[in-house]
Design goal:
Layout lengths: L1 E6 L11 H4 L4 H11 L4 E6 L3 H11 L5 E5 L8 H9 L4 E5 L21 E4 L4 H10 L1
Parallel strand pairs: 1-2, 1-3, 3-4, 4-5
Helix pairs in contact: 3-4
Bound molecules: 1,3,4-trihydroxy-5-OXO-cyclohexanecarboxylic acid.
């Protein structure tokens, strides 16, 4: 299986950013552990702070990969463009969030991704990503 984790804005700061919410592990450290744990999965990772770059990546992989694990971060709540990209492609998308967005501010309750996602996993910390990987196996 060929899967990609696509991370949106500020997720490059994992391990440094609001560690009470997002934990103190960097994504690089987490990604290493997860690639070791699932050696049969061709797992890639892409991160951008730029909305259009995330859309370009979704389009690039969206007709050939087996699955996309998408944490669009703050763009989840604002980006019709990313939502449309998820709708336009053939590869199934699992929407992921580290935190339970429903237990946080009202503006995090809205998602432009969910309606076109195959599923949504949130609130399990970085383990949310792993649960999404397992869903594709
Ligand atoms: C997040 C939740 C978003 O509301 C927030 O803007 C993020 C991270 C999460 O993984 O919990 O940057 O997507």
């Amino acid at each position: 299986k060929k899967l990609i984790i696509i991370n949106g804005p500020n997720l490059n700061l994992l391990g440094k950013r609001e560690t009470n919410i997002y934990g103190d592990l960097s994504f690089t450290e987490f990604f290493e552990s997860i690639t070791d744990k699932y050696p049969n999965v061709k797992l890639e990772h892409y991160q951008s702070n730029i909305e259009g770059e995330l859309i370009d990546k979704i389009q690039d992989v969206g007709f050939s990969y087996d699955g996309i694990i998408l944490n669009a971060a703050a763009y989840t709540h604002t980006s019709i463009g990313i939502g449309d990209a998820v709708k336009a492609i053939e590869t199934p998308v699992i929407e992921v969030h580290i935190s339970n967005t429903f237990s946080r501010e009202e503006f995090r309750h809205q998602s432009y991704i969910s309606t076109n996602a195959q599923g949504v996993i949130l609130g399990f910390g970085l383990q949310s990503y792993e649960l999404a990987i397992q869903s594709f196996l």
